[in-house]
Amino acid sequence: IAGITQAPTSQILAAGRRMTLRCTQDMRHNAMYWYRQDLGLGLRLIHYSNTAGTTGKGEVPDGYSVSRANTDDFPLTLASAVPSQTSVYFCASSASIEYTQYFGPGTRLTVL
Amino acid sequence: SQELEQSPQSLIVQEGKNLTINCTSSKTLYGLYWYKQKYGEGLIFLMMLQKGGEEKSHEKITAKLDEKKQQSSLHITASQPSHAGIYLCGAEGGSQGNLIFGKGTKLSVKP
To answer: Do B42 and A42 touch (CB under 8 A)?
Structure first.
């Protein structure tokens, strides 16, 4: 059982380009989340999904969009990347929103 | 909004020594999670505490939630190099029912 996988592991991106970060879980968890981790700011929630077909905005949603077409996948899209989106991005999932969250290995994104 | 403050921010200990990391909340904690993160990797779930006075242990790591449910401590006994990493506390307190996190404590263990 892989748990949560994220792709790519790392990426360098030119400003203005579109980028999709992929996240897949095989635990049949209902809830999924995207966080960004920045030095001095800790982990901040970008978007979340309580169940397939629904999504919601977290603490820092601007410049990001998500979709949840099925239970397993929760891609995060940067429509037009900016340097302030340079960060490490973590996907997480939980059985439901009040249960323990399990994290993926992260994607390190650099926007130049 | 709820905030979690961790102390110390960083810690360097000699192998074999005991250490304690603290997590203090601005509001009552209804679920407190401890995670460990190694550099360049994701967060690994360690333990979850819910009840005031609750204590849980896993190998040489013990976590406690105080009676008032506003502070948790993580204690490592006889530290080893494998304990090195960043320890984060998380709590149910986000506006969407999500977890909020402390900024982490970086632990280094010298052989």
So the answer is: no
